[in-house]
Amino acid sequence: MQPTIDALLPYLESHPGDARVLYEVGGAYDTAGEEAIARGYYERALDAGLEGDILRRCCVQYGSTLRNLGELDRSLEVFDEALRVFHGSPSLTVFRTLTLHAAGRADAAIAALLEVIADDAAAPELDRYRPAIRGNAAYIASSDG
Questions:
Q1: How is domain 51-145 classified at the architecture level of CATH?
Q2: How many CB atoms lie within 10 A of CB 63?
Q3: Per-residue CA distances from 110 to 11, 24, 42 (Å)
Q4: What is the pLDDT of residue 99?
Q5: Alpha helix (H) ranges present in 32-89?
Q6: Domain spans of the chain?
Q7: Around Cβ 117, how many Cβ atoms within 10 Å?
Q8: DSSP state of 88
């Protein structure tokens, strides 16, 4: 992922306040496993004014990053705020359930997942996240009693 980060940094230098550039840089660091760095870029991107699908995607990734950093309450806040804007978003709901699970709220997580499956399992917006969803599902299954 370092080549992607290296390719994005010149754009960031020329457009330091561009919300989309900040989001993309954050995503590159996130994919590289550098969540602590990604967090700052996601926050700056949100402050700079993302809109539409990119805003939803940033909220998914930012909330997930916060979960990975152990900031479960803040992660739930991010997902809940985003779901007020993107009511019923399957991707936001799925990643919110991962935070619920990490917070020891397995019943709430399973209930939310069942609702997503019942309502939106074929939603195209989930396609982008299916590998991450499957990876997290495998991890949860492997750690189950």
A1: Alpha Horseshoe (1.25)
A2: 26
A3: 41, 31, 28
A4: 97
A5: 35-48, 52-68, 72-85
A6: 1-50, 51-145
A7: 11
A8: T
pTM: 0.85
Specify burial of residue 27 (Cβ count, 10 A radius: 0-12, 13-18, 19+): buried
Query: φ and ψ at 41, to 5 degrees?
Result: -70, -40
- Extract the tokens encoding 127: 């396609």
Q: Which burial class, exposed, middle or buried, applies to 30 when counting CB atoms under 10 A from its CB (0-12, 13-18, 19+)?
A: buried
55-104 pLDDT, tens digit each = 999 999 999 999 999 999 999 999 999 999 999 999 999 999 999 999 99
CA-nearest of 58, 47, 60, 59 to 25 is: 58
CB 16 within 8 A of CB 40: no
- Stretch (H or E) spanning 96: helix 90-102
- Hey, how many other C-beta atoms are within 10 angstroms of the C-beta on 67? 25
